[in-house]
Specification:
Radius of gyration: 20 Å
Shape: globular
CATH superfamily of the largest domain: NAD(P)-binding Rossmann-like Domain
Helix content: 40-55%
Order of helices and strands: EHHEHHEHEHEHEEHEHHHHH
Number of helices: 13
Largest sheet: 8 strands, mixed
Oligomer: single chain
Number of domains: 2
Strand order of the largest sheet: 3-2-1-4-5-6-7-8
Structural class: alpha/beta
Strand content: 5-15%
Distance between the termini: 45 Å
CATH topology of the largest domain: Rossmann fold
Bound molecules: 3-hydroxybutanoyl-coenzyme A
């Protein structure tokens, strides 16, 4: 199984991070991998380019100890190796692997893959970066590609986070799984295998933990500031649960929990993912976390 042309559809934070991480990985540069980032408008692509530029500049500053010339060269060489396109079908027709990182909506994902299924070569692998939707449901939109349809779940910030969950449906072929595992390894990340269950591994544990932190504060048992300090200093987490919820986005957290809660049946411990009142209230007020300038904490105006 040879993956030498990869398209990432969706140029938001996750898609841009995935494109960057593939384009910058030395093992994949050596294999002359071709990376294309796709979104529906030029504006969105420009925003994706900006996200990649900022992240690479941050890495370069450290790597080259503030040497502006070397940093600039590093950033430009990686950025210029990525193709930016607005036509997903055209990109798919020249891809061995297509990774989807668009809006977290089943209909939108199914529609995208239904279209791409008619354009991509027969051998091409499809992968979704969904954090909460069942991979098998998304894969239903393709006609004959269910053995080549997997979950590749990355974590924010993608260039920094080492983990990728490789989600294996019952129909995924062993060859494709092995090929994806190798790609993840070549990205200098670590792949873990998980079944197609709600939240896979990380979110199945992380989301109830964040929600329980919210409930703990709602009960008046501690302040959010003290909960964050406690989990950083007492459990060694890099961020406390409120800082993390603001970082992930409160709308994203609410969306994931509501989806699981409503889908309900078959989910053990359903009450663990019931969206807490204060989370719902903040989202209703447009306080979505860092990206909107306020969430559980205030980050100053955006
Ligand atoms: N691009 C490149 N590098 C980045 C970066 C980015 N976007 N963001 C952070 N970094 C790098 C910094 O350059 C720095 O590098 P260095 O160690 O070489 O100096 C390093 O990360 C640490 O960054 P900072 O010093 O600025 O800040 P922190 O030490 O606080 O680390 C953090 C920031 C990496 C975000 C850390 O706080 C962390 O790991 N937080 C937890 C993140 C987490 O749990 N993510 C998972 C969320 S769940 C998810 O994504 C699933 C989804 O489905 C919802």
């Amino acid at each position: 199984m040879s993956i030498s042309r990869v398209s990432i559809v969706g140029a938001g934070l996750m898609g841009a991070g995935i494109a960057q991480s593939i384009a910058a990985a030395p093992a994949l540069v050596a294999k002359k991998i071709q990376v294309t980032l796709v979104d529906v408008t030029q504006d969105r692509l420009d925003n994706g380019k900006k996200i990649i530029h900022q992240s690479l500049a941050r890495i370069a500053k450290k790597k080259f100890d503030g040497d502006a010339a070397k940093s600039g060269e590093f950033v430009d060489s990686i950025l210029s190796s990525i193709a930016f396109k607005t036509d997903a079908g055209a990109a798919a027709s020249e891809s061995d692997l297509i990774i989807e990182a668009i809006v977290e909506n089943l209909d939108a994902k199914q529609k995208l893959f239904r279209d791409l299924d008619t354009r991509a070569p027969k051998h091409a692998i499809f992968a979704s970066n969904t954090s909460s939707l069942p991979i098998a449901e998304i894969a239903k939109s393709t006609l004959s590609r269910r053995d080549r349809f997997a979950g590749l779940h990355f974590f924010n910030p993608v260039p920094q986070m080492k983990l990728v969950e490789i989600v294996r449906t019952k129909e995924l072929s062993q060859d494709v799984f092995v090929g994806l595992k190798q790609l993840v390894k070549d990205m200098d990340k670590v792949g873990v295998e998980c079944k197609d269950t709600p939240g896979f591994i990380v979110n199945r544990l992380l989301v109830p933990y964040m929600l329980e932190a919210v409930r703990l504060v709602e009960r008046g048992d501690a302040t959010k500031e003290d909960v964050d300090i406690a989990m950083k200093l007492g459990a060694g987490y890099p961020m406390g649960p409120f800082e993390l919820a603001d970082y992930v986005g409160l709308d994203t957290t609410q969306f994931i929990t509501e989806g699981w809660y409503k889908a309900g049946k078959g989910l053990q411990g359903k009450e663990l993912v019931q969206p807490p009142e204060s989370l719902v209230k903040l989202v209703g007020e447009g306080k979505l976390g860092r990206k909107s300038g306020a969430g559980f904490y205030d980050y100053g105006k955006k």
